[in-house]
Specification:
This is ABC transporter ATP-binding protein. The protein has eleven helices and ten strands. α3 packs parallel to α6 and α6 runs parallel beside α7. A six-stranded mixed beta sheet has the order 6-7-8-3-9-10, sandwiched between helices. Strands 2-1-4-5 form a four-stranded antiparallel beta sheet, with helices on one face. The protein binds adenosine-5'-triphosphate.
Length: 260
């Protein structure tokens, strides 16, 4: 099957610092890939290169076979990539449903569609869609609650709804399980599984290896900006280079502890 997302020999330098070196990656439609590596390995930078926050120094990025390397971030979003961040980026003083509508706004193609999430148009389809997305996620009871009043686990899941709204083909999640308690983590896992069972591909950065094992069929390991391993989670965890990368840094992450 043709790739949904392809990174072909991508490199990134900041000044003289080579942060990503000759990194290649294939994400098939509907596949679930984990991107792991020690702190500072370059995982978030890879996300930033894919979504167009930073231009690449070398290499190509393709989405659905189309070269998007030079496209600005807002045009890449319209190719169906959606992202959540390490830190929650919801608008705390808006309601849950208003936050979901902001996600729709980012993907609106026509100027009148961009106005619609503001609620100025009659028969606001956008609001209905946002409420439906909350219902599908089992979060409808929070629709009118202000985000800053909601528990952390619910806020994380709202981010997921916002990212996935409007039919993303690729969902990119940066440390979605960080800071969640075991119950919240299970709820998030079920939520992500639900979103991706419909054929949305997943690329997830996550330190919590148990979470990655349950969610991802394939794992890619970065260290000092280079790919050092790729394969099924249980294979990768036994890879000597991966063990060295984690244990050699002395980073007592969940991945290292699991891998040991
Ligand atoms: N805008 C920037 N300017 C200069 N250096 C940067 C920039 N962004 C990232 N870096 C550097 O790139 C390297 C990789 O950072 P990145 O945040 O991508 O790592 P990471 O694997 O996501 O780490 P963590 O797991 O701690 O989030 C680090 O050395 C970081 O300091």
């Amino acid at each position: 099957m043709a790739d949904l997302l392809t990174l072909d020999g991508v490199s990134k330098s900041f000044g003289g610092l080579k942060v990503i070196q000759d990194f290649s990656l294939s994400v098939a439609p509907g596949s679930r890939i984990g991107l792991i590596g020690p702190n500072g390995a370059g995982k978030t930078t890879v996300f930033n290169l894919i979504t167009g926050v930073y231009p690449v120094t070398a290499g190509r990025i393709l989405m659905g076979g189309e070269d998007i390397t030079r496209l600005p971030d807002w045009r890449r979003a319209r190719h169906g990539m959606a992202r959540s961040f390490q830190n929650i980026r919801l608008m705390p003083h808006l309601s849950a449903v208003e936050n979901i509508m902001l996600g729709q706004h980012l993907r609106a193609r026509r100027w009148w569609d961009q106005m619609a999430p503001l609620g100025l148009m009659p028969r606001n389809r956008w609001k209905r869609d946002a409420v439906a997305a909350l219902e599908a996620a089992g979060l409808a009871r929070y629709a009118d609650a202000l985000v800053y009043n909601l528990p952390y686990g619910v806020q994380k899941r709202l981010e997921l709804v916002r990212a996935a709204v409007a039919g993303a083909r690729l969902l990119m999640l940066d440390e979605p399980a960080a800071g969640l308690n075991p119950t919240e983590r299970e709820e998030l896992l079920a939520h992500i599984e639900g979103l991706t069972s419909g054929g949305t591909a997943l690329l997830v950065v996550e330190h919590e290896m148990g979470f990655v094992r349950r969610l991802c069929e394939r794992v890619v390991v970065l260290n000092f900006g280079q790919k050092i391993a790729e394969g099924r989670p249980e294979e990768v965890q036994r890879d000597p280079q991966v063990l060295e990368a984690y244990l050699g840094t002395g980073a007592a992450t969940g991945a290292a502890a699991d891998a040991a």
